[in-house]
Design brief:
about 40 residues, mainly alpha
């Protein structure tokens, strides 16, 4: 009784997405630089 390849791939992708669902977290320096850019508008 093995799982289909399609089901295995879907589970693997789900686990991968759940680890970091919102992308890379910026460092404090990057956030501060972005905040400085926004204030000049």
């Amino acid at each position: 009784m093995s799982k289909s390849k399609r089901r295995q791939e879907r589970e693997r992708q789900g686990k991968k997405q759940s680890q970091n669902p919102h992308g890379k977290v910026k460092s404090f320096e990057e956030l501060a630089a972005d905040a400085g850019k926004d204030e000049s508008l």
